[in-house]
Amino acid sequence: MNNNPVHGDNTESDDGPKAASYEPFGSGRIGISDVHRLAGAIVELRAVDYQHGGGACGHTLSTLLAGAERMLAADVSSGTTVDRLRVVTADLHNLTGWAAFDTGRLGRAWRCFDRALELARHTGRQDLVANIHYRRGRVHLHHHAPEQALAEFQLGQAAAGPSGSALEMSILYANQAWAYAVLGDAGQALTLLGKAGEQFALAERAEAPSWAGFFNETDFAAMTGIVHAELARSADPAYATTAIGPLSTATAAYGQDMARSRTFTLTALATAHLIDGDHDAGVTTAVQALELVGSLTSTRTRDRMRPLKTEADKHPAHAHTRELSEQLATATRAPGR
After folding, report:
1. Of the candidates 30, 99, 116, 7, which has an alpha carbon nearest to the alpha carbon of residue 62?
2. Residue 253: CB partners within 8 Å, gap ≥ 6?
3. Could you give the 3-state DSSP secondary structure of residue 26?
4. pLDDT per residue as tens digits for the range 108-137
5. Which of 24, 97, 324, 334 could form a disulfide with 112 if both were Cys (CB 3.0 to 4.6 A apart)?
């Protein structure tokens, strides 16, 4: 039984035109080349998720999952191939859960994360176990349950430590910092953000597995800015000033291939500008975020705009901010494309 904040599923969009198409895997004798093919498909679909949102790859991921589970039940050529297949299938469930979360299908997300954990624990890949806990924590954090998010992040940290993965430790410290920022605990948030930076400096990012490769210099800057932007809302508006620099850096660095992440940072940056008193910059930045969000099959990007609307609502005397609030009201009601 999960302590998940929401159990139900919303309707998932059909795969978008950019999603790759993969034939289901058969049930014959499975060799390492089949496993490599599956791993390559995951890399491609993870890129689709980053660029277009979880709804652009959800159906294809479901097809692949069915094939991967058949492969696990089939005649496999060697023990090494079985071990590698379990790792890849766990990662596939991990990605499928993430895409489901991105489109509001939380029941589906939790089922996939549960299966991912089951498989990952059998493989001994503690860095993958840590990553799954990180993603489970992000579901709780998104749905306003920071204490439950912290519990998952700390389980991930316990797994990442013995694995020796400084990159996973950095991811988990940074996300714990975010959870503490939501709780308004600036001391803990900044301490953990500092630890995230120390681990990030030690990480061998060139050797990062598929599930952790997203966390590069740009994403670390984004997380730094998001923690400060969250503290500006929960603890002290002065943190908005220190959020603007790293969020601007991340926004400029994210390319089209990371459109969803760029939307998140633009939204946080616009919020920080409004809290900092620069209404014109806030509106201009928010408009950029709104232009991107319409092209994404992601309900999560729209959810993340709600704090921005809250800040815009505080300034009805400013004509452009008032107009922005109306646009945000429409955007946050609309489903992901």
Report:
1. 99
2. 217, 218, 221
3. coil
4. 999 999 999 999 999 999 999 999 999 999
5. 97
DSSP 9: B
Alpha carbons 288 and 35: distance in angstroms, whole number: 41
Looking at residue 124, the DSSP 8-state letter turns out to be: T
Residue 337 has a pLDDT of: 56
Q: What letters, b where the CB count within 10 A reaches 16 and e where it falls short, cover 198-230?
A: ebbeebeeeebebbbeebbebbbbbbbbbbbbb
Largest CA distance in the chain: 70
pTM, 2 dp = 0.92
Q: Is the pLDDT of residue 140 over 70?
A: yes
Rg of the chain over all Cα atoms, to the nearest angstrom:
20
Between 84 and 16, the more confident residue is 84
DSSP 188-253: HHHHHHHHHHHHHHH--GGG--TTTTT-SHHHHHHHHHHHHHHHHHHT-TTHHHHHHHHHHHHHHH
The β-bridge partners of 9 are 105
Angle between the N-to-C axes of helices 58-73 and 32-52, in degrees from 0 to 180, rounded to the nearest 10: 160
CA distance 226 to 268: 6
Mean pLDDT of 26-49: 89
pLDDT higher than threshold 50 for residue 3:
no
User: Could you tell me if 293 and 305 are in contact, meaning their C-beta atoms sit under 8 angstroms apart?
Assistant: yes
Q: What angle do CA 19, 21, 24 make, to 5 degrees?
A: 140
Q: H/E/C letters for each residue in 91-106?
A: HHHHHHHHHHHHCCEH
**CB of 321 closer than 8 Å to CB of 312:** yes
Question: What are the C-alpha distances in Å from 15 to residues 84, 103, 210?
Answer: 28, 12, 21
